[in-house]
């Protein structure tokens, strides 16, 4: 059974940092593309970033470029999202998602999802 468990969310002041983690189990992690997707209050899902199975290809939505960094540790079956210079508009539930073959920004293509972790940026 595929399981994705996010952690690391919380309340942070504007300009602060958080690192999200997503621990994977039940599948061959190093074969899968991993993404982070978020949902702000009252809004739809928004793709944030993806990383290829080997970690060599990454991409970000424009609004987080230069502030967020995605990475993965295939030995630990974990993907990370380092978030710096956080803004109130980054407030959202952050989900990690996995897919065996799709690499891209259409969140609807990702087959497996975690339960999400809340990130709140507020003073």
Radius of gyration: 13 Å
Measured between the Cα atoms of the first and last residue, the distance is: 40 Å
Q: What sort of overall outline do the alpha carbons produce when their principal axes are compared?
A: globular
* Share of residues in helices: under 10%
Average pLDDT, to the nearest integer?
A: 97
Count of individual beta strands: 11
- Assembly level: single chain
Structural class: mainly beta
Beta content comes to over 45%
Summarize the biggest pleated sheet. Answer: 7 strands, mixed
Order of helices and strands: EEEEEEEEEEE
Number of helices: 0
Poorly predicted runs: none
Descriptive report:
This protein is mostly beta strands. Helix content is about 0%, strand content about 50%. It is built from no helices and 11 strands. It has strands at about 5, 10, 20-25, 35-40, 45-50, 60, 70-75, 80-85, 90-100, 110-115, 115-120. The strands form 2 sheets. Strands 2, 4, 5, 6, 9, 10 and 11 form a 7-stranded mixed β-sheet that branches. The protein is globular. The mean pLDDT is about 95.
What does the secondary structure layout of this molecule look like, with pairings?
Layout: E1 3-7, E2 10-12, E3 18-25, E4 33-39, E5 45-51, E6 58-60, E7 68-73, E8 78-83, E9 92-99, E10 112-113, E11 117-121
Parallel strand pairs: 2-11
Antiparallel strand pairs: 1-3, 3-8, 4-5, 4-9, 5-6, 7-8, 9-10, 9-11
What's the short story on this structure?
With about 120 residues, the protein is mainly beta. About 0% of the residues lie in helices and about 50% in strands.
């Amino acid at each position: 059974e595929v399981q994705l468990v996010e952690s690391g969310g919380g309340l942070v002041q504007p300009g602060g940092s958080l690192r999200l983690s997503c621990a994977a189990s039940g599948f061959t992690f190093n074969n899968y593309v991993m993404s982070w997707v978020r949902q702000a209050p009252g809004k739809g899902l928004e793709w944030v970033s993806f990383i290829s199975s080997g970690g060599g290809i990454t991409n970000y939505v424009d609004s987080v470029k230069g502030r967020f960094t995605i990475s993965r540790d295939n030995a630990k079956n974990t993907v990370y999202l380092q978030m710096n210079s956080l803004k109130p508009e980054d407030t959202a539930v952050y989900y990690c998602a996995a897919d065996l073959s799709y690499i891209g920004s259409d969140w609807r293509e990702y087959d497996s999802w975690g339960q999400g972790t809340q990130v709140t940026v507020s003073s």
